[in-house]
Each structure stands twice: as structure tokens, then as C-alpha cells.
Amino acid sequence: MHSIWQEQMEFPVYPILKRDKKTDILYVGATLKHAIEANFQKEMGRSVMIIEEKSIGDMPELGGMGILKATNMNEFKELCILKNYIIRQHIPCDLEIISETSIQVHPVKLFLFMTKDVEVYEQTKITARQGKRLDIESAYIDAGQVIEDDKPCEKRYIHVFSEAGFPEITKPDILEIRKYKEDYLVLSYQRKLEGSRNSWEI
């Protein structure tokens, strides 16, 4: 199942990496966090790359809930920088400022904007490592730094409810709720929630 964020979105054609590359920073996994970091690192003059083993346009997990939060002072500074950057650059990502420590965005729109000047490769999987040299079967990547995605241990699901049909949900079933257009998005450990119009795993 595709996510609500992928509806009516056109993704660029991302190449498969087939030749040796060298980069200052390699991000493993096409996540919103990696896209944001890669964009800022590139603006500081570093060479950056993102590789993803899946087809990016088909990844329902890309972006998750689109809620970005700061839980400590460092994250608060980063969130302020991002928020001001989105406003200054007029990034069309449906920014909503919830509080000083939380914003909502359309995660796919923000991902696409932040990666427009970044080298992104899909269907590119690391098969072996030797120090900072990574083997991707068809080629090698020499990276000064490798940053990988921290995936949560448990599977989580985003469920879509219409405003009219939004049910009473017990607290243990939900991790987060956000309103998006005429829908409610509910993050849960539960694969099925009664009344959910559709859902996807993140």
C-alpha cells in the first residue's frame, strides 16, 4: 500500500550505481532525516551521496508521519535551522508550526526538495565492507563517513481515518495522531485498527 504522501507525486528517475564513487559522507537509506542532513552538508561544501536498496518511489515508509520534533537542545537548534530554511527558501512542503519544538511537513515534498542537488541512487545495496570501502557488487564506494538509518525494533503502522469516521481509539493503541487535510493519521503498533481507510508500514 502506498502512503498518503505518495498520492499525485512524481518522483525523479533515480539511477542504480554501477561505477566506483568517492564521497565525503555516504547516507545509507532514503529517509527524510538523511535528505535534510545531506542537503545541509552539501551546502557546507562536502560531497554527499544517498543510496537506497529499494525503489524510492515505491517506499511507503518514506517520511513516516511528517512530524519533526526536538527532544533536547541540540535537536531544538537543528529544528529551528530547518524551520527557518523552509520559510526562507519557500519550500512547498505544507509546513505547519505546532509549537517551538514541533513542526509538521509533507515529508515526500520536503525529501524531494532537499535531494534535488544531492546524488541519490536506488536499488543499490551494500554487500560487503572493508573499512570505509563499501562493495555494492557492481562497484565500490569509498566514503569518509558512513551514516546509516536507525530503524526502530518494532514495526509501526500509519492508519488513515476520514474526519467523519474518526473513532474513539484507546491510548495503548496509538503513538501519535496528526490531522492532514480532511484526514486523521494515526501511528500505531497495531497492523489493524477498526475504521481505518488504509494503512502502511513504516
Structure description:
This protein is an alpha+beta fold and 202 residues long. The N and C termini lie close together (11 Å). Among the domains are: 16-66 and 106-148, 3-Layer(bba) Sandwich (FAD/NAD(P)-binding domain), CATH 3.50.50.60; 157-201. A hairpin with a 2-residue loop joins strand 11 and strand 12 (183-188). The chain has three helices and 13 strands; from the N terminus they run E-H-E-E-H-E-E-H-E-E-E-E-E-E-E-E.
- As a percent range, the share of helical residues equals 10-25%
* Main beta-sheet strand count, sense and barrel state: 6 strands, mixed
Major sheet: arrangement of strands: 6-2-1-9-8-7
CATH topology type of the domain at 16-66 and 106-148: FAD/NAD(P)-binding domain
Instruction: Calculate the terminal CA-CA distance, rounded to whole Å.
Output: 11 Å
Overall pLDDT: 92
CATH class placement of the domain at 16-66 and 106-148: Alpha Beta
Q: From the alpha-carbon coordinates, what is the Rg to the nearest angstrom?
A: 18 Å
Structural class: alpha+beta
How would the global form be characterised? globular
Q: What's the number of extended β-strand segments?
A: 13
Brief characterization of the structure:
This protein has 202 residues and is of the alpha+beta class.
Task: Record keyword descriptors for this entry.
202 residues; globular; 18% helix; 3 helices; four-stranded antiparallel β-sheet; six-stranded mixed β-sheet; alpha+beta; FAD/NAD(P)-binding domain
